[in-house]
Write a structure and sequence with these properties.
There is one protein chain. With about 375 residues, the chain is an alpha/beta fold. The protein has 2 domains: about 200 residues, 3-Layer(aba) Sandwich (Rossmann fold), CATH 3.40.50.2000; about 150 residues, Glycogen Phosphorylase B (Rossmann fold, 3-Layer(aba) Sandwich). Helix content is about 40%, strand content about 15%. The chain has 13 helices and 16 strands. Helix 3 packs across helix 13.
Length: about 375
């Protein structure tokens, strides 16, 4: 089994490298330089189709690219380069080969950003993770060179430090975040535009799913998030929750970590008759397998809310909050309280107010109509024509 896994991993690496040699051909001057992680690029491919329909020329510069993401982008004929391929992969602009340096040394992100921006001369720099440290060099270079900077809100922001964007313009989900950006980060309303979220264009609000459930058949999904510098505290609280849920006799606890999150292996030890499982892969699949969802401060909690899953918001006292409570979602601050809410949801004693749920989703997302990517593309088209 180990040999087979090593063979698969080696094959994936070789295929990754071979596919990374494909030439990039840009037939016209670049309108958009899009700096984005691979998982985001895959999620908003509908937006890229909209850009093509408007004859907007763009190139994706990608970090954290997996083989699966590379294959999906190649399948959809989306022009991209992985940041580490700069200087190794041939790029042609209007028939001329561009010469990129592949020896950057220290401060390489800034030097790569400078090299790309100088040679491609984009009109707009578009990002989704501003102010992430991988993105900031591109924003600094773009501003220095007079390139307009725009960022798309990618997630449900909660700690201000993760959302204090440096771009000139932010494309926000909805009215809730317009207010949040202004009141929490002192952003000017003139720098924020509502488009809805292109990351949620595949989702539409579903009816609430209610049914009484026997506790010994109950499958609970826990959606985690990363709290930097508080990993030990989080593991301790999750351990308490597992203990209480197991004590009341739930059948399974599915724990879904945030991408790149490392968890204590001891969390997955079976407790009594309760199975503890780690969930990876498709979030939609994880939600379908669960009867009740418990969410921390993570965007995935909104996926559960949109899908109509019985939901409990675990509002740990040490951290800022997301607006689940105002949407009528049962809210608890301790592991024991979360367990009680799960019991009440399972028995039918506690129900979610559907009117409040829909009002919150409309306030947060503006519209879940599958057209946010179109609105973003229209906005970018208008910016390019100014």
């Amino acid at each position: 089994m180990m040999k087979r896994r090593r063979f698969v991993n080696s094959t994936s690496i070789i295929l990754h490298k071979l596919l990374g040699r494909k030439n990039i051909i840009l037939h016209n001057n670049l309108d958009l330089l899009i700096v984005i992680p691979g998982d985001h690029a895959v999620k908003i491919r509908y937006l890229f189709a909209q850009l093509k329909d408007r004859h907007i020329n763009f190139l994706l510069v990608i970090h954290n690219l997996t083989l699966r993401e590379r294959l999906l982008l190649l399948r959809d004929n989306i022009p991209f380069i992985q940041i580490d391929e700069l200087g190794k992969r041939k790029v042609f602009l209007k028939g001329s080969k561009l010469a990129f340096d592949d020896r950057f040394g220290k401060n390489q992100n800034y030097k790569k950003a400078l090299d790309l921006t100088e040679k491609l001369s984009p009109k707009i720099l578009l990002t989704t993770t501003d102010p992430d440290i991988k993105i900031l060099p591109f924003i600094k270079v773009a501003k220095k060179m007079g390139v307009k900077t725009i960022t798309i809100q990618h997630g449900a922001y909660e700690p201000p430090i993760e959302a204090n964007y440096k771009s000139e313009i932010a494309l926000a989900w909805g009215n809730y975040y317009i207010t949040w950006f202004k009141e929490t980060l002192n952003k000017k309303a003139t720098s924020i535009y509502i488009t809805g979220s292109p990351f949620f264009d595949q989702l539409k609000i579903e009816p609430l799913k209610y049914k009484s459930m026997a506790i010994n058949k109950l499958k609970v999904l826990l959606l985690l998030t990363i709290y930097p510098s508080h990993e030990a505290y989080l593991n301790e609280e999750v351990t308490k929750l597992i203990y209480y849920l197991s004590k009341i006799g739930v059948s399974e606890i599915h724990i879904r970590p945030h991408p790149w999150q490392k968890l204590d292996k001891n969390l997955f030890s079976r407790v009594g008759y309760t199975k503890i499982k780690k969930e990876v892969g498709s979030l939609d699949t994880s939600l379908k397998k669960s009867d009740i969802v418990i969410t921390l401060n993570t965007t995935a909690g909104f996926n559960a809310l949109i899908k109509g899953k019985p939901l409990v918001y675990w509002q740990l006292n040490k951290f800022d909050t997301l607006p689940f409570k105002q949407g009528g979602i049962p809210t608890a601050t301790s592991a024991k309280e979360v367990t009680v809410k799960c019991l009440e949801l399972a028995s039918g004693k506690l129900k979610i107010d559907n009117r409040k749920r829909r009002e919150l989703l409309n306030d947060v997302f503006y519209k879940l109509d599958g057209k946010s990517g179109k609105r973003v593309a229209d906005f970018l088209s208008n910016q390019l024509s100014e």
